[in-house]
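Sample intake sheet
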Amino acid sequence: MIVRLNRPDRIGRAALAGAAAIAVGGGFAQSPFAWVVGLIVGAAVISKRWTLGFFVVLGMTAGLAAQARQPDAGEIASFRIDEEVVAVTDPAPAERGWAFVARVVDGGTKIAILAAERPDAMAGDTIRVSGSMRTRPGRLHRSEVVGWMTARHISLLERAGGVMGAANSVRSRVHGLFAEDVPTGALMRGFLIGDTAAIPEIAIDEMKRAGLVHFVAVSGGNVALFLGAVWLGLGVIPLRPRLRAGLGLAAVVLFVLITRWEPSVVRAGLMIGLVLGGRLAGVPIGGWTALGCAVGAALLVSPELLADVGFQLSVLATSGLMLGSGLWDHRRPRPVWRALAGTLSAQLAVSPLLIASFGSVPAFSAVTNLFAAPLVTAATALGWAATFLNAQVLAAVATWIAAGVLELSRLATSLPQVGIVGVGVMVAAAGALSWRPVVGGVAVATLAAFVMMPAPTTPGPVVVFLDVGQGDAVLVRSASGLVVAVDTGPSPIDYAAALRRQRVSHIDLLVLTHSDADHVGGLDALGGRLTVGQVWRPSFTSDEEWNRLLGGVQSSDEAVRAGATATIDGIRLSVLSPARRFAGDNDGSIVLWIEVDGVSVLLGGDVEAVAQRELPSLRPDILLVPHHGSRTTDTDWLQQTVGGLAVLSYGEGNTFGHPAPEVVAALRDSGVAVYETASGDVVIPLGRRSPVRSSAAVAPAQ
């Protein structure tokens, strides 16, 4: 059986070689190893490959020019300014407010502008800003800036005109049709214009794990759909082929501006622009030639793209797609096999880079893409139709279809990730499928069974202190599998990963000790994803705040105080605090005593010295040190309370100084075993198998 690979022709090979030479020259020109370029050029000249040497020198020149454009560090200075500037990028959420890049009208230098409120401005708009300026060169939104300005006042002077104004109008129309506060609406923004700012981080993480996140990294497919929508609108007008190609070229420029010249869009736009330009000139340009010329041109203009992971992934995925899309054209039905071959080839092409950058790749992304691609295509096509026609009905249908993509990514997120060995097995299985379908089918089935085999977990009863970074999250699992969860940590991504590690598919009782972000920030990992039986939250707090926090968790909630009790499949829970309202939110945390078959656990949330002194005298077998080991803990109380084992829940390298040295010293002086979640999940069996089972534990009076 002949393997049908779409290899580049002679012109294509020349274009790709030229792009590679430019990349080599540009890369080494920006590194201390520029002398290597001299050796490459010398070897090319000696072997009479003059063209290759020319492209290397061209790339090196572009790299040196890029270095020259970078602002010098100079002397850091602070001063007040009042300037007229043109926005270069759209305002985007930042750590404290909003940030964007602007070009000073008088002088042309670029500065980063930080604003507390979202400015009424888009890229290309002229505005006047006043505030304090600090000269410190850096990068923001892939732009080099000479300083950072904290804006006190921003006023719009003039909206962008021309093509940029048209692009902004289309972008605003998309924002108006698809609401950012609805996950499916935010996803539609990603499909259409690459705006992922409003997509929940847990949804982005699920799409990454499913191998679907590239659908919101706008690239060639999105450009093609946009062009299709434009040409469909022009279909009723009889146009000559060259005029149609010229209008298509203009549409590509418009789309690049709409999507804010993302690296993948620049690559795709240049490729399609070259093909359309060839039609205008009457010169056919093949795909490989277009790819090589597009990559080379992009690197000549912006050599820094060489280090951009998005650009790298775009080039590799396109190469893999073009090379392998016809691999199984001899099989039927051809569209299904072609789609599977294309997605698998693209996945294999980007796998080495994904593993190097992120550590793993989704094992079954080719399959999930096979199901997701038709949904994304339909949603995107309808989304552009809704945008051009300003049709809410079409927008609603597109949003409904996009919900299917989110649901698919949720289902696929539990599928395994593989490393370099797994990718090698995938390549072997694909090869076997090409040559011997039966053998290949068996290989694929064996691979699927192996990688989907669940990892073993400690049987219950057990308590698990989860590694979720700088925060608290605890699981207590009974012998029959019922789960009590206490807090969710700061991040839905980290909490979801921890729940997958412990193979938690439901939560019978969720206890939220208080409303600090490092204890409830992971709640988005539960909304619509896991079944939660009931929620406990502390009394003496704002119902309005808890209604907002628990909006995505479909479960009844109850405000509890000292004296509340429950028993869940042998897990006995007693709330010891709060019994009153405290001045500090931390002291108002739920303090929970848990007992399973004679082994006791005390979870104190973030209670500090005031609330600690009001607790009954206790001595649990296992103590979660309150407030991540902060110095707000009364060390006398800690030494009197800690039993056989203490756990410190904190994130490595946190900026809060947790755990405090005096707390660590108090634990060491007490002679107890100390475990830390910064090193991974802490799993402690309960009941008769517990290593800390002790008759010396002092329980609260009932």
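Comment: The radius of gyration is 30 Å. The chain has four domains: 10-69, 78-160, 166-324+369-415, 462-689.
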